[in-house]
Design goal:
Two copies of one chain form a homodimer.
Chain A lengths: L1 E6 L3 H12 L4 E7 L2 H10 L5 E4 L8 H11 L4 E6 L4 H10 L3 E4 L4 H12 L7 H17 L11 H11 L4 H8 L3 H15 L4 H10 L4
Parallel strand pairs in A: 1-2, 1-3, 3-4, 4-5
Helix pairs in contact in A: 2-3, 3-4, 7-9, 7-10, 8-9
Chain A binds a DNA duplex (30 and 30 nucleotides) through helix 7 and helix 9.
Chain lengths: 214, 214
DNA sequence: AGCCTCATACGCTATTTGTCCTATATTTTA
DNA sequence: TAAAATATAGGACAAATAGCGTATGAGGCT
């Protein structure tokens, strides 16, 4: 029998969660708290809780901060974020705070149940869109630790042009910024493409960012 | 009916996979290849495959390299790694190569089926131990996610288009990759510009990267 | 049943970009 | 000092992009 605690300030959502959980006889909802602060109080009194379903957007003490505290004070308790937000920022912060899983609110009861079983088993259940974003975080972090920049021998002027190019302005504006003609800008870009072996702005800028040319 | 291709050099494991998949009547295993090279040949001849189940440890061309190629040549094909290795290194490389999911070989048929449905739906299914390691990867290299991403409400399709845009390919190629007309691509991009309040590719991509929309 | 959003598709026009070309003055370097 | 590299400038043409319009079917929500 697994003991679960819910942190959720929205009554309707909390009820919906409890209804879903009550479908499974080996789960027991030990309580429902309206914010992070009362949740922490609850945990202080009561040591039996094994899983917390945590909303992110709560008054007084939000879900991220609360998760950090729960994990600091009771590392054995599993925390599953259950929220309507699937924005990268929230996901990232929740993961850093130590959340074990991250579900969106509209999951089916079975998925919710499986997820609870999964965290108890050392896993990390995530809603599919959340998982996709998590993978993207990993993909993009790598870009910053990229390999020793290759040698492309851009001139100072070319690098300058490339930097301007990366901002999304057009040739005329670059020309104005650098007090040269747009024809010259084009010529420089032609040379840049040649050196980088690319054929358009986007490729040039992405390669430049990857290799720390700009 | 979803068409699936298996890349696996171990006969026993391949058979086991096929047995599991055959339990579901809306899945169709289109073939089984013994290494990455023959898999690529298969895909070249046959355009109907939607999902590839990819082993990591194959002779001639391994699963990571093969995934990179599959994703480069056929971005619409979903790749799920299916392997005995749950080491961080493999997971990390597979994610960078563009894998959509990462399962361990001993998953139950239902989990395998759900995972296939999940990738088709834009998700990122992972075995629980893999997901946990993925989260750890994020935890131990943070800094870049400091500022809150703004809310732009891009649809899934728009995000997909934006990702393609960032690679520097043109509208026609994006259209081919996604099996839609270039007119539709243009319309999506128009909508993206509207939502992001920008007026060209470069601005859109830079804003997207900055706000982790892609 | 009616109202949304999303994804799809097409037409038209103007602007921007990419790839050729040539040409000259200045700066760097061998 | 001579040669090479760099920075400047512009012509011509094709391709790609951006901004506008309209329209339709599918699916979700009220």
């Amino acid at each position: 029998m697994l003991r679960i605690l819910i942190a959720e300030d929205n009554t309707r959502i909390a009820r919906s969660l409890m209804e879903k959980l009550e479908l499974f006889e080996d789960l027991k909802v030990k309580g429902w708290e309206l914010n992070g602060s009362t949740l922490l109080n609850h945990l202080e009194r009561n040591s039996g809780v094994e899983v917390v379903l945590m909303d992110i957007n709560m008054p007084v003490l939000n879900g991220i901060e609360t998760t950090r505290e729960v994990k600091r004070l009771y590392p054995h308790i599993k925390v599953i974020m259950s929220t309507v937000f699937d924005e990268e920022h929230y996901i990232f912060e929740a993961i850093l705070a130590g959340a074990n899983g991250y579900l969106l609110k509209d999951e089916r009861p079975e998925k919710l149940y499986d997820s609870i079983r999964e965290v108890m088993d050392g896993g990390a259940p995530m809603s599919s869109s959340v998982a996709r974003k998590a993978l993207n975080m990993i993909r993009y972090q790598r870009e910053h630790y990229s390999q020793p920049a290759e040698e492309y021998n851009l001139t100072r002027r070319e690098t300058e042009i490339l930097e301007q190019l990366a901002t999304g302005i057009n040739y005329n504006q670059i020309a104005e910024n650098l007090y040269i003609s747009s024809g010259t800008v084009r010529k420089h870009i032609e040379n840049i493409y040649q050196k980088l072996q690319v054929h358009n702005k986007m490729e040039a800028v992405q390669l430049a960012l990857k290799n720390r040319l700009i």
